[in-house]
Every structure is written in C-alpha cells, then in structure tokens.
Amino acid sequence: MPEIRLQKLLGVHGTGQTEESRIQVMAAQTNARQRNQKSKLANQIAHQARELSPYVQAVFNM
What we know:
Order of helices and strands: HH
Number of strands: 0
Helix content: over 70%
Radius of gyration: 26 Å
Structural class: mainly alpha
C-alpha cells in the first residue's frame, strides 16, 4: 500500500495510460491533418483539370 501512495505522490500512477492516450490523440490529429492536406491537393488538381480541360480537348482535336 505505501508503494501505491508513493507512486501517486510522485505522479507515476496511471502515467502509462495517460501517455498512451496522448499518443493516440496525437496520431489521430496527424492522420486528420494528412487527410485534410490530401483532400486539399485533390481539390486543387480537380480545379486545375477543369480549367485546362478546354485546352487539352483542343490539342487532341487538332
């Protein structure tokens, strides 16, 4: 029992779970940022493709 009290006093008790949760949150945030960035890039590419479409069609129709 004294060991558990000492761990709590030192802030050691439960840090494994806390650290794991913190890492999971960071991983989820990183994944969300990556998905957001990929989505933005995909939208930029689609927009550029729409803008270039008449020119590309003109080249192929020559």
